[in-house]
Amino acid sequence: MTQRVAVIGAGKIGEALLSGMLRAGKEPADLLATARRPERARALRERYGIEVVDNAEAAKLADTLILAVKPQDMVAALEELAPHVAADRLVVSGAAGITTAAIERRLAEGTPVVRVMTNTPALVDEAMSAISAGSHATAEHLERTQEIFRPIGRTIVVPESQQDAVTALSGSGPAYFYYLVEAMVDAGILLGLPRATAHELIVQAAVGASVMLRDSGEHPVRLREAVTSPAGTTISAIVELEKHGVRAALIEALQAARDRSRELAAGAE
Ligand SMILES: NC(=O)C1=CN([C@@H]2O[C@H](COP(=O)(O)OP(=O)(O)OC[C@H]3O[C@@H](n4cnc5c(N)ncnc54)[C@H](OP(=O)(O)O)[C@@H]3O)[C@@H](O)[C@H]2O)C=CC1
Ligand SMILES: O=C(O)[C@@H]1CCC=N1
User: Fold this and answer.
1) What is the pLDDT of residues 64-110, one digit of tens each?
2) Does 166 sit in the ligand 2 pocket, CB within 6 Å?
3) Which domains occur in the chain, in start order?
4) Model confidence, pTM
5) What are φ and ψ of residue 76, in 5° steps?
6) What is the pLDDT of residues 23-74, one digit of tens each?
7) Are 84 and 32 in contact (CB under 8 A)?
8) Closest protein CA for atom 8 of ligand 2
9) 71 carries a ligand binding annotation
């Protein structure tokens, strides 16, 4: 039986999921989306040929609802959805922080809820999506969720207690790499390179390093050692990074992201 999937609040992440499901072979008729603004609804219809309906309609028509609204909009969205969500629907939340318990509490008793933290490389099928079962979700619900997220990258199942840390690492993770690239391109400008050249050099270094990290199975320390020649250039740079506390800054940055995820949860309790 074809499962109909509705993306509730199709913004950046919701759209990435819709396009991923279409690339993976779902028909536009198998998908629904909801949006808050008419111009957004129009753009989604034109781009993907899918029906964009209101939240109540989506809850009635779809077997699986993917909640892709911001954490701060979650309570309001659940209030609109709850009267229309039958307890045999699967509800998947992609929101940072929000717990499955907070969602379950607002839906009919027994409704299966799954929490997922994905990331924007979903747009190029390189997402990392970490999936956790709520208290009524079965292995079959986890499998259905994995089927939705697998076409846009990798998936893992984690205990929900790890989701705030996952959000800090892989949910926000791409932003840290973009930030580092921005800073290194600035360094290239300082060293006298044209911006376009600096950008090309750093992006390819990032791609090469990422592929080696993923595919070689080597520890990052070993890979860095292989670049770091005695009395060479790399160690001169590493000394500066250590002097400026970059390692400690990254650890504290990710702790702050984890703490913010917890605060977002508290807003929906
Ligand atoms: N961006 C990222 O890298 C990641 C985001 N996430 C999570 O994904 C979720 C979405 O984030 P993102 O895509 O960046 O945010 P967006 O703001 O791009 O998308 C959310 C969309 O939901 C719409 N919306 C809000 N309330 C309602 C409602 N009641 N009914 C219908 N539509 C509604 C918004 O409308 P409007 O346009 O009018 O505001 C917006 O288009 C968040 O919970 C975030 O934590 C998870 C992993 C990574
Ligand atoms: O910044 C945020 O809150 C969202 C969640 C993870 C990535 N972006």
Assistant:
1) 999 999 999 999 999 999 999 999 999 999 999 999 999 999 999 99
2) no
3) 5-160 (3.40.50.720), 173-264 (1.10.3730.10)
4) 0.96
5) -65, -40
6) 989 999 999 999 999 999 999 999 999 999 999 999 999 999 999 999 999 9
7) no
8) 172
9) yes
